[in-house]
Amino acid sequence: MAVFDPVKVAFFVEVLVSGLLSGILYALVALGFVLIFKASGVFNFAQGAMVLVAGLALVRTLNWLEAHLPFWLALLLALSFAGALMTGIAWAVERFVLRKLVNQTALALFMATIGITFVLEGLGQQIFGAQVYKLDIGLPRDNIFALESLFDGGILLNTLDLWSALLAAAIVGALAFFFQWTRTGRALRAVADDHSAAQSVGIPLTRVWFIVWVVAGLVAIAAAAVWGSKVGVQFSLVYVALKALPVIIVGGLTSVPGAILGGLLIGAGEKLAEVYLGPSLGGGIEHWFAYVVALVVLLVRPQGLFGDRIIERI
């Protein structure tokens, strides 16, 4: 009896790679949550709505500009418009919401982001409509066979998934570098540690909050572009973004590397569970597996696998 079955190994690798590619996209959305929480202590429930609004602005502007301009110029202008819109939203949130809630409780700030969610969803539907829009940002969509030298026939990959993951990985890497090694990134971490201490050394709290919401808005544009290319731009993008919640629970709400690794763990885990456990459990595991993993992590290590330990002295 053969212990090593090349066909089964190739199939396992194919499923694993597919899960890892999805995990990178989850990590991209999760970074929006992590960046805002680390800089302001606010759990931004509105991140999913920001992804939706960014996607609607991008696809509607791109569809209109394509009729008048070459594709790549139209795409550049559409991304610029979406970036300007998310910057405006960041300014409005900081000016009219966060600035009024300085030194308020974390619960008050969280409830404010729930209100922002409904405002953004309502405005998005009112301005751009509620239809499903097909988004094409120029990424190839063919199927290819990779690792043919290792496995007979190779493993099947979709180039759209591959390029989306590479784009997301580049953005995740750039954000991680920005947060860890730039002066502004260090200022964001200082504000997260202690608002009063950061202000006492000259770090302007309102400017830092504006910057981090702008960054989260740009992350929302990237997430909307890659997810919209896969599933279309529609209101279900809000729920796709909320799929990042188990990622930040597993990785840790205060850890940028945790968001990345948590996304990879959740993405790979749910694909493998669906393929290998789904047939015996009735299928559909992919939809709830991540939340079960998150629950287990909460019971064992509430701060997440890579989050900072919370020590309270009384």
Describe this protein's structure.
- With 314 residues, this protein is mainly alpha-helical.
- The protein has one domain (6-300): Orthogonal Bundle (ABC transporter involved in vitamin B12 uptake, BtuC).
- The chain has helices at 6-40, 47-66, 71-96, 106-128, 159-181, 183-193, 195-200, 205-231, 237-242, 244-251, 256-276, 278-281, 285-300; strands at 143-146, 155-158.
- Strands 1-2 form a two-stranded antiparallel ribbon.
- Helix 2 (47-66) packs antiparallel against helix 3 (71-96) and helix 6 crosses helix 8.
- It starts with 5 loop residues before the first helix and ends in a 14-residue tail after the last helix.
CATH topology: ABC transporter involved in vitamin B12 uptake, BtuC
Q: Helix tally? A: 13
Q: List the uncertain runs.
A: none
- H/E element sequence: HHHHEEHHHHHHHHH
Name the shape in a single word: globular
Strand % is under 5%
Reading off the top of the CATH hierarchy, the class is best stated as Mainly Alpha
Number of strands: 2
Number of folding domains?
Answer: 1
CATH architecture: Orthogonal Bundle
The residue fraction in helices comes out at over 70%
**Termini separation:** 63 Å
Main sheet: strands, sense, barrel: 2 strands, antiparallel
Spatial order of strands in the largest sheet: 1-2
| Mean pLDDT across all amino acids | 80
Rg from Cα: 21 Å
Summarize the structure.
By secondary structure, the chain is mainly α. About 70% of the residues lie in helices and about 5% in strands. The protein has one domain: ABC transporter involved in vitamin B12 uptake, BtuC (Orthogonal Bundle), CATH 1.10.3470.
